[in-house]
Design brief:
heterodimer, A: mainly beta, 2 domains, five-stranded antiparallel beta sheet, B: Rossmann fold, D-amino Acid Aminotransferase, Chain A, domain 1, eight-stranded antiparallel beta sheet, five-stranded parallel beta sheet, 36% helix, nucleotide-binding (chain B), Rudment_hybrid_motif (chain B), ACC_Biotin_Carboxylase (chain B)
Chain lengths: 174, 453
């Protein structure tokens, strides 16, 4: 069981008339701590501890097929482009549209090479380096954390070859 | 049909909200959760959890077959779709009917009637509501004639758009041709529907909406809400009732909303969105949302109703138990949407692990949330973490209580918009009430200037 907001309110009403400033309740599957904060009111901190047991829908679609892992090709000196935020990586501005860039394309620091969707917000990914796209390491529609390598860029002679992240553009809402 | 087992085909705080009503009414709650949500707070609170599919919404919360399969596999009597995702999807409503499962929402034909912007506009006109002067334009000649009639500036809107997407401002006749072409091609690409329509541009408008509830033959209006504090068409703060409106305006808005609900023979919970023109002091129909809304708690606070319970009741086919004269509004309520975003960095999303959640509690305070210490907020879905809802005797009292409550709230581990709400609640223009939908950008700009100086 857990306490409903109404239950918590009843507890507070009882405490209000008592002199108590704090109450800690510990049950098998939840804990609750309520605290008085002078005249500004009360706070509640609740923790539901149960572990849900998950049923499978009888005809539920199977889990996403394991995507083929990319061959870690040998690209010595290539710069890894990583997403500025964790999210779903898209190679094109919208489904069906041509990709922002492809293997073999030349890019500079500000070239948009993809977008990541994080919590419904779209953030452009910039190459961050001048050079040539040599490989994609993350598929279109794949989730990428900020450590993930989206693609590799072979830096043009004379440009900095530091491992960079894909710029922090102003997120464009969609 | 009596609902004894309810499948909740949604996530986040609205899933928790529906579970609470199930518990109160003795209904067994079954949460249909994606892989990203199997261990979240809603899953821990539900009586049962059934796996819906992989984390991407397109393979879980937006997959009609998966939702119906989940409902069937647990023998649910009904499906509650929450808001967003498939909540207004007529195909899901039909698929539920075919599977002999109650869809907690309006009939498919109502969903279709209000789901298309032009169709909604036609129904509103038929029901006697004022719409913003304008109409569909299929070619330049038609657009020119229409534009002459409604005047400039005007908006070109995509029929398939919404939430600010697919909308363009035309300042003068010289811009019309180019903007129309662009709007049509962009609408075709973005929404797969090239249809556009023109509308007079309202320079200073407030977003006011009326909550309605119908049983298919009769409807009641449950007061209005003001949702004008928005950023990029995303609501940030809502309140009920809408402040600083004449009593006859409240009455006229309720009457208009009821006329539309009656015209549609509407069964379910719905919201009639209106645009209140601050200069002309009149209002127009915008659209109708055929679902429960994020901001429903402010209406619950001032009416004392449980809107989810009312929604389940009419979904069971029962007649309304409320008469219009039973609806009595008391006091004023405010809701602050607390999102996992850093508002000082362009509202940059902040998914990740929540370390600790301490919430204000007490009379007149309600927090609807789906996070607790240890929760992981996935990047796949929206950024809403919690809604702080505060009820006061009047608007000033509600705002004062909201300030105190906000001071006691802490959600650690991710960035949240709570500091933005503290700044908003201290802003004189917001405090005065009745701001228009351009207010927030001015406020954000002003606040930034203050930070720099």
């Amino acid at each position: 069981m857990t306490l409903s907001p109404d239950d918590v309110r009843d507890v507070l009403r009882a405490l209000d008339s008592s002199g108590l400033d704090e109450l800690h309740l510990e049950l098998s599957d939840f804990t609750l701590t309520v605290r008085r904060h002078g005249t500004s009111g009360w706070t509640a901190e609740q923790q539901v501890l149960r572990t849900p047991s998950v049923e499978q829908a009888t005809t539920a679609p199977a889990g996403a097929a394991e995507r083929p892992r990319h061959r870690a090709a040998d690209h010595d000196g290539a710069v890894a482009v990583r997403p500025p935020l964790p999210g779903t990586f898209y190679r094109a501005p919208q489904p069906g549209a041509p990709p922002f860039v492809d293997v073999g394309d030349d890019v500079d620091e500000d070239t948009v090479v993809g977008i990541v969707e994080t919590m419904k917000m779209m953030t452009p990914v910039h190459a961050g380096v001048r050079g040539t796209v040599v490989e994609f390491r993350t598929d279109n529609g794949e989730l990428a954390d900020t450590e993930a390598v989206l693609l590799l860029v072979e830096p043009a002679p004379g440009s900095s070859g530091e491992d960079g992240t894909g710029g922090d553009g102003d997120g464009a809402g969609r | 049909m009596r609902i004894r087992r309810l499948l909740i085909a949604n996530r986040g705080e609205i899933a928790v909200r529906v579970i609470r009503t199930c518990r109160r009414l003795g209904i067994e709650s079954v949460l249909a959760a994606s892989d990203a949500d199997l261990d979240g707070l809603p899953a821990r609170l539900a009586d049962r959890v059934v796996r819906l599919g992989p984390a991407p919404a397109s393979e879980s919360y937006l997959d009609i077959d998966a939702v119906v399969a989940a409902a069937r596999s647990v023998s649910a009597d009904a499906v509650h779709p929450g808001y967003g995702f498939l909540s207004e999807n007529a195909a899901l409503a039909r698929a539920c009917a075919a599977a002999d499962v109650v869809f907690v929402g309006p009939a498919p034909d109502s969903l279709e009637a209000v789901g298309d912007k032009l169709s909604a506009r036609r129904h509103a006109v038929a029901a006697g509501l004022d719409v913003i002067p304008g109409g569909q334009a299929t070619d330049l000649a038609e657009a020119r004639a229409l534009a002459e009639a409604i005047g400039y500036p005007l908006l070109v809107k995509a029929v398939g758009g919404g939430g600010g997407r697919g909308m363009k401002l035309v300042r003068s006749a010289g811009e019309l041709s180019r903007t129309l072409d662009l709007a049509i091609s962009e609408a075709a690409a973005a929404f797969g529907d090239p249809r556009v329509y023109l509308e007079r541009f309202v320079a200073s408008g407030r977003h006011v909406e009326v909550q309605v509830l119908g049983d298919g033959s009769r409807a009641v209006a449950l007061g209005d809400r003001d949702c004008s504090v928005q950023r990029r068409y995303q609501k940030l703060v809502e309140e009920a009732p809408a402040p600083l409106l004449a009593e006859q305006t409240h009455t006229a808005m309720a009457r208009a909303a009821l006329a539309l609900a009656t015209h549609l023979r509407y069964r379910g919970l719905g919201t009639v969105e209106l645009l209140y023109d601050r200069q002309l002091r009149t209002f127009y129909f915008l659209e109708m949302n055929a679902r429960i809304q994020v901001e429903h708690p402010v209406t619950e606070m001032v009416t004392g109703l449980d809107l989810v319970a009312e929604q389940l009741r009419v979904a069971e086919g029962l007649p309304l138990q409320l008469r219009q004269e039973d609806v009595v509004l008391s006091g004023h309520a405010v809701e602050c949407r607390i999102n996992a975003e850093d508002w000082t960095r362009g509202f940059r999303p902040s998914p990740g692990r929540v370390d600790r959640v301490v919430l204000p509690a007490g009379d007149g305070i309600r927090v609807d949330t789906h996070v607790q210490g240890g929760s992981v907020v996935p990047p796949h879905y929206d950024s809403l973490l919690a809604k702080l809802i505060v009820h006061g005797t009047d608007r000033a009292d509600a705002l004062a209580r909201a300030r105190a409550a906000l001071g006691l709230l802490s959600i650690d581990g991710v960035d949240t918009t709570a500091p933005m709400h503290e700044a908003l609640l201290a802003d004189p223009e917001f405090t005065a009430g009745g701001v228009d939908s351009t207010f927030f950008d001015r406020f954000a700009g002003k606040t930034r200037l203050l930070e720099v100086s």
